Each structure stands twice: as structure tokens, then as C-alpha cells.
Amino acid sequence: xxxxxxxxxxxxxxxxxxxxxxxxxxxxxxxxxxxxxxxxxxxxxxxxxxxxxxxxxxxxxxxxxxxxxxxxxxxxxxxxxxxxxxxxxxxxxxxxxxxxxxxxxxxxxxxxxxxxxxxxxxxxxxxxxxxxxxxxxxxxxxxxxxxxxxxxxxxxxxxxxxxxxxxxxxxxxxxxxxxxxxxxxxxxxxxxxxxxxxxxxxxxxxxxxxxxxxxxxxxxxxxxxxxxxxxxxxxxxxxxxxxxxxxxxxxxxxxxxxxxxxxxxxxxxxxxxxxxxxxxxxxxxxxxxxxxxxxxxxxxxxxxxxxxxxxxxxxxxxxxxxxxxxxxxxxxxxxxxxxxxxxxxxxxxxxxxxxxxxxxxxxxxxxxxxxxxxxxxxxxxxxxxxxxxxxxxxxxxxxxxxxxxxxxxxxxxxxxxxxxxxxxxxxxxxxxxxxxxxxxxxxxxxxxxxxxxxxxxxxxxxxxxxxxxxxxxxxxxxxxxxxxxxxxxxxxxxxxxxxxxxxxxxxxxxxxxxxxxxxxxxxxxxxxxxxxxxxxxxxxxxxxxxxxxxxxxxxxxxxxxxxxxxxxxxxxxxxxxxxxxxxxxxxxxxxxxxxxxxxxxxxxxxxxxxx
Length: 611
Description:
The protein is an alpha+beta fold. Helices cover 17% and strands 25% of the residues. The chain has eleven helices and 37 strands. The longest helix is centred in the C-terminal third of the chain and has 17 residues, at 593-609.
């Protein structure tokens, strides 16, 4: 069973840049140890704030102000510290997509590709006399032609936390669309935050609209395809209707184009999720779920970038009826995925834990997109070899509360969940899910004292390793000096006094004035710790009042105070107007202070207690 763990980072005492806003439908983008959070809705207005969370420092930080004329609060709604020129209008439901390349913008300009400049407002404009840049051509395969552009390279885990400048890498965050809070349609603009120079040299700019842009889009998805140097936008809603068209943006020339596809496209939707997977020479765009205006969806669709086609995605039942993987036209393979079944919160089910120490934790069990409830309702096969075995993941720690409109940003093996809302409550908390936490170092094995306590009962009246024998009423009881002297100072003094040894070298000690059964009961208590079952009203020889008195006298003789108290408690049950004088004498003889106190109490209150 795999394990994941939730945690909630605590802010340092300085608090970072101030109070983190409560927002939903914002965006969070990771680059080189920093989380860039932009926009979102706080219940009253759309934010245009740029927040930055440092993973190294574990706090929200303010970018350095590069414009000396601006000195507003970095959390304000009208300016950005460290972000030059104009700032995008406040919005929510937009996308923020990181695009990186192995060649910086300065290198591009040096090689004669600088066809853009920035005007006084910080917006990009084409330089007079320059030739309009053309998008790189596509040869039908995985190669780009023309444009003098090196392929964009994704970050890996080894350099994902590197914060040093790298002139060979250009990094930009593309803000596309969203809801501005005014007008009948969603936003159709695009803004770019250049983060190549780090937090001290942030720059906002708005490239001119070129090519065929997607138009107004809200609650859409945008994914960067590194091998192509393009951002693919699967359009959601435009404020009036739900859509399913696909568009691509060249991240170097900022030219849009409509992506012509074949195959059966997903139905119109918004609020879906998407991701790009590049592996084994393939580039595929995955689209899952969403809302089509009447119902929530849980279907999966795959777009093959090489074939420019939406693939036929089968579930298990459809695939099991086929003897071999079938093919679509143009040699397009069918993709086979497990059945998609969700219930509760994303297929999670709370696990009841009886351990009192973990009652304040909320643990979850993931089972391959199916809830534990769903799998438990399936009929079990008579043949256990035919039963489906689903791998499960145990998630420990306190997870985030219920929410929607939050962000989940993957950084290496960690997923950072920030903000969102639950009903009318807008949230600002930050949680981290470690998908591969270090194994917990637990003390699961018994300590030496625990082993001694558990195994000691084996040696009760056992001749194995016995070095002392007690003679009680002519019968032998085997013991061990180390054990007995550890629990009783009387035994310890007895062994040090010197007694005769038998021919086998074992000390023999005679115990007078007690019964064999009471002495054996005392020895059993020493070796096992089990309290004897005492019944002072019994008429049997090995129990009853006489037996309890004999055991009390032995407990007093050998300084076994806990056994003495067990006897005292049992004898208090038979204290009455006839027995208390006798029991008071026994208590005084055996130094049984609790029994004596009870007898005195009865003596003072016997008139009331006998009514």
C-alpha cells in the first residue's frame, strides 16, 4: 500500500507580505521555487493582484518594485511590485500557463528576430519597417520548420527548485481569458508575465492579437506542449454558450491558429481539466470531466498531436469484448483506460480509526478512481482468484476542507492546494500533499522491559533456569532469584542471608505457616501480573475468607504492596457489624492501612449503615 501525506505549512512570525486574500477561481503557476498566484474572485470583486509564495522560505513574499514611482501595497488592487508597465484587469476563471524555452528573449533579439517593441504603456507593438513574423511551419510530424526557434524544454525535478539566473532559458506565464465581471461575454485578451529574470525583474506585457485567436473564453483549459513551443487551449464557455473548439498559440511569435482535428471531439463543456503527456515520441492532450450546462461529466478524451485526431477511448467493458487492440483509420491506436467511477469527494472515503490518538486526523483511502463504498457493493466471486485486486493509497494527515474554485499545482512530488470557496466562505489556506513522503520511523518492536514482562509468565513455577526452590507444605515451587529479588526486598534479603543448596546447586528454602495454594497464587501474581480472582464468600478450600487472609499475610511478609491492596479491596465487601472487629485486627496485624481505614469508617457509621 502506497502512502501520501497532507500538511499545512505555517507562516513565519513576520507573516510574509500581509494577509493572504481569500479568493477562488484564481491561478497558481510554479517556476523555480516560486508559486505565482494571479487574479481570482473574493466575493466582492475580481483581483488583479500578483502574489508570490516562496517554497524555500515558506511564506508569501512581495516582488521588488522596479518602478520608483509606484509605492502601493503589493496586495492592493491597482499596482504590482516588481511587475513593470500595465497590469491585466482583475479576473477569475482564466488560465495561467507556463511556457519555457532554452533560449532567452535577448538571444532572440540578437539573432534578428526582434519584430516587437514595447510602447509607453508597456504593450507590445510591431516595429515600423519590420516584416510581420510568421508562425513556424509544421511538417506533419514532430518537427518545426522555419522561425529560427529552438524547441521548448520542460523543467525537470532536478532543476525545478533552482533560482539562479539562466540566460539560456526564457520563461513566461500566459494569462488567457477569464471573467472580468462586466459585459455579456468573457474576456478574449491575453497577457504575458515575463519571469525569466526572477522576482526582481518581472514584466507584464500584452502582445498584439495575431492570427486567429479563440475569442472570449472562461473556465477553459490551456496546456503548454514543450516539443511544439505552443499553448493549446480547449475552450470552455464564452459567457453565452459552452464550446469545444481547440486553438494553439505559438509562444515565440504570439500567433494564434485554430487546430483542425479529426475523430469525435468532446462535447461542449466548461470547468473541465486537461493535461499534456509527452512520452515515447508521443504528444497527447487529455481532457476530463466538466459541466455541459445540465450535468457534471466524468468522461475522458485524448487528442493525439501527431495524428491531429481525437482518439477512441474505451472502458474496460468495451475492451474486454475485443480479442486484440483494434485500430482506427490512419493507424490510430485505441486507448484503453480503467472504468471511470467517482462517488463522494473525488473517489475518496473516510476511514474510521479507533486509535484515540489519531481521532483528530482525517485519513482517506483512494482505490483507483472508485470509492471504497462502490467496490464493497460489488458481488464477490466464489473463486478468490477471480476477484479484482485494486491497488490502494493511504493518505495521512489533515486534508483541506471542502472547497471548489481552488488551485492544485504540482511541484515535483508535491501538490500545493491554495484558496477556493465553500458556500459563502472564501478561503486563503495553503495545503501540501506529499505524494511520496519519507517513511515514518516508528518503534513497532517491543522494548526490553516489555519483552521481559510478556515472556516472564513462561518461567512461572518452571524448573528451566530455576536457582531456588521453595518447600511449602512439603511441595516444591520453583523460582528465580533475579526475578524475585527484583520485585521484593524481602526475597532479596532472604537470598543474601544464605541457605543450604541442594546437590544440583539450587537453593532450597522452606516457607512455614502458609498454605501451598496461597503461596502459589502469590508466585503466579509475581510472574504474570494477573490479579487473582478472590471470593471472600466462597466455601471452597482454595478460596474464601481464610484463603484471602493467608494471601494478605504473604503479601505483607514479602512486601508485595499491590497484591496487598487487591486483598484489602476484596475483604472490604464482607465488613459488617459482626466481622469488622476481627477484620480490624487482621488489618492491624498485616499493616493493611486501607482495610483498617474502612473498618474504622464502618465503626463510626455502623448505626446508619445497618438500618
